[in-house]
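stage 2 :: seqdesign
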């Protein structure tokens, strides 16, 4: 339709100004070819992904498991200092984290530094103190999922400042909390379920 519209407009100009028809057609064809070579907006649009934010994580094994979840789902892993472990290349190699290269890991000095470097449109703060279930909220493309340190969770002033974003994974009243890496996996896959598991393979070798 783009070609037809331009052709019609130029035909009008031909009639008005008696332009050379061969030159006009050449210009149309060249313009159409060049336009067809341009990438479409749908191809340029950012792929669906999630962001996992760990605030002052303490146990390296948990973060290792979370990094594996991020690697498997294409989620970005944001780490906010202080960290209870070393994530240098040497330390990662020594720990045998052969999937670490698949993870987009970003490190920040504190929450202020994090917000200064990211545009957060939607966020979910996971906490045992939260007023509602993590299943009762929506998760959009690019959502940031926050998790606190293993011993204390997210800072209470931070939770209070973002009350409407706080969610809880339901557990027994007698239990203190779930393991951090398990909590992250639960949150990530609920978000991905709502997004229809974009870009993830949903079948294995048993598929006929």
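stage 2 :: out
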């Amino acid at each position: 339709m783009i070609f037809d519209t331009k052709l019609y407009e130029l035909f009008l100009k031909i009639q008005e100004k008696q332009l050379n028809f061969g030159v006009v057609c050449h210009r149309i064809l060249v313009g159409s070819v060049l336009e067809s070579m341009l990438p479409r907006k749908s191809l340029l649009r950012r792929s669906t992904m999630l962001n996992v934010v760990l605030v002052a994580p303490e146990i390296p094994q948990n973060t290792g498991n979370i990094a594996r979840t991020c690697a498997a789902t294409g989620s970005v892993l944001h780490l906010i200092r202080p960290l209870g472990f070393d994530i240098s290349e040497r330390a990662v190699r020594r720990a045998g984290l052969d999937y670490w290269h698949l993870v987009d890991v970003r490190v920040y000095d504190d929450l202020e530094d994090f917000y200064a470097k990211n545009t957060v449109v939607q966020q979910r703060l996971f906490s045992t103190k939260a007023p509602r279930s993590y299943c009762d909220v929506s998760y959009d493309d690019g959502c940031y999922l926050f998790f606190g340190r293993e011993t204390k969770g997210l800072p209470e002033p931070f939770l209070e400042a973002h009350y409407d974003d706080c969610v809880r994974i339901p557990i027994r009243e007698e239990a203190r909390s779930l393991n951090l890496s398990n909590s992250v996996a639960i949150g990530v896959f609920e978000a991905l379920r709502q997004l229809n598991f974009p870009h993830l393979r949903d079948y294995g070798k048993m598929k006929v």
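stage 3 :: structure notes
- The helical segments are 2-17, 21-37, 41-44, 60-73, 89-94, 111-117, 156-161, 180-194.
- Confidence is low (pLDDT under 50) at residues 24-46.
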